[in-house]
Design a protein that fits this description.
The structure is a homodimer. Chain A is of the alpha+beta class. The first copy, chain A, has 2 domains: 154 residues, Jelly Rolls, CATH 2.60.120; 85 residues, Orthogonal Bundle (Arc Repressor Mutant, subunit A), CATH 1.10.10.10. The first copy, chain A, is built from 8 helices and 11 strands. In chain A, strands 1-8-3-6 form a 4-stranded antiparallel β-sheet. In chain A, helix 5 crosses helix 8 and helix 6 crosses helix 7. Chain A starts with a helix and ends with a helix. Chains A and B meet through strand 5, helix 3, helix 4 and helix 6 of A and strand 5, helix 3, helix 4 and helix 6 of B. Chain A binds a DNA duplex through helix 7.
DNA sequence: CGTAGTGTTGAATTGAATCAAGTGTCGTGG
DNA sequence: CCACGACACTTGATTCAATTCAACACTACG
């Protein structure tokens, strides 16, 4: 019966009008186009250029390196590599992870378009984790020493980068709270709602999206096992709060998902 | 027997040559002196002035406000207050916490001398948590808008503040890993070792110190209950890795404590 | 001196992990 | 294009680490 349900959901999803993203990139732009400038980038309100004027954006453009696209599984950098750059996701998605002493990894973050990767390396001058592409993805590399130089010239860039780092700190502390006092179901609901609002930020559907990561990635991120994540998903589906079919997720009742989190 | 042991430990601790800090302040400076300058502050290598030259330190000094001392339980700021300043702990200690929906709080951070409080408010312009003094404490208040202005004039200050924020991000991600995959004993050992090295940074004993926070605070921070923290403490004491007497902690075998963490 | 807050310990319970056995899905090469 | 193998996911039964509930001891402070 569970299986029949899942099949059914595929039909529904594929028949629907709103297309699911193939990867998390707004439609207008070729997702992996390397020739786009900061000024014309669809993400510019999320990434660094926000609050910069035209000539300032041009200056930023000068220091940004638009690398070749990354294939699924390609490393952006590895733990203990010398810190050189931060990266802005242009399309696709990435995960950061650390290898614990017993060899198995734990996921520390996921990154969607417009988000900044690599800030954990700023202080120690080495990356504290490894980061790999979860799907075919493209990024903008921003050499940090040049970003610092430019920030010194452009107060609004300095201000914005302080804000980006402050946001990262606030987000990390939310996750601290999530992990230290929420149940498996609460964590999972919160994770889904978090993804939802991040997709909304890049003008994608907040209620229907593809998970770029495995159940195992989600489990490592939330401090749960794969099995638990899977059980919670089926449980939420049984309650008709979400519709799951493999990586395809539909949030059927966002208010009820929010209610789960605040019920502890 | 447990009780007899605890009594005994007090004797030992009090008889030892290295004095325990009354609060976490290096001895040379009156712990709550408001008239000290950044240039003469014993913590200056940890706090902002590092890497600034004399005249730069003087400029920083100008914007720092040295408030009256805070009593135990005094709020530095409350959740949702408008963000105005970051704060450097001069003496004593603080904790940040958020109130969850059910009313009970969760501790998100502890702050010891030389550490910077309030960076979670930079992005949203509101503090994301409340912060209170755990003991009689003093701080330097640094109005953030002025810090930004000065950072713009002093590249080394900008660089250092980026590093401070990067360090906070890296630290928060370590805690994420700790909470998502370590056992109660591993978390507790890691917490004690973390405190140890932070005390070492301010020239206090890394092996003997007073806990400024309650067991309950530790539990909330580590995602454990008070009872579990208490049991782990007695367990570690039974294994002769630590000696506990109320808030007084002695780390008897730091290597073995490290081994606990890497054994998962 | 009494009381509220802090800490310890024990017994019972439980949420999530572990162990185990599958099915489903996708990419690759024959 | 299909078959194969590797990986991803699901579901069930059992176990266990940590929580919960409960009772009590210690401490510190007005």
């Amino acid at each position: 019966m569970g299986s029949a349900n899942l099949r059914g959901s595929t039909q529904t999803a594929e028949g629907s009008k709103i297309p699911l993203q193939q990867n998390a990139t707004p439609a207008k732009v070729c997702p992996h186009n390397s020739n786009i400038s900061c000024a014309s980038c669809r993400l510019n309100e999320l990434c660094l250029p926000i609050a910069l004027n035209k000539s300032e954006i041009h200056q930023l453009d000068e220091i940004v390196e638009r690398n070749r696209p990354y294939k699924k599984g390609d490393h952006l950098y590895r733990q203990s590599d010398d810190f050189k750059s931060v990266y802005a996701v242009r399309s696709g998605s990435f995960k950061s992870y650390v290898l614990s002493d017993n060899g198995q990894g734990r996921v520390t973050s996921f990154f969607l378009p417009g988000e900044i990767i690599g800030m954990d390396g700023i202080a120690s001058k080495q990356y504290a984790n490894s980061t790999i592409a979860l799907e075919h993805s493209s990024i903008c590399e921003i050499p940090f020493s040049q970003l610092e130089k430019l920030s010194h010239q452009l107060p609004s860039l300095q201000h914005h980068f302080f804000a980006i780092m402050g946001n990262e700190i606030a987000k990390d502390q939310q996750i601290h709270t999530l992990l230290s006092s929420y149940t498996a179901e609460e964590r999972t609901a919160s994770f889904l709602l978090g993804l939802s609002s991040r997709y909304a930020h890049v003008s994608l559907s907040p209620s229907r999206f593809l998970l770029p990561m495995t159940r195992s990635d989600i489990g490592e991120y939330l401090g749960l096992t794969v099995e638990t994540v899977s059980r919670i998903f089926t449980g939420l589906q049984r309650k008709e709060l979400i519709q799951v079919n493999n990586r395809e997720i539909e949030l059927l009742d966002i208010a009820a998902l929010r209610a789960i989190i605040s019920s502890s």
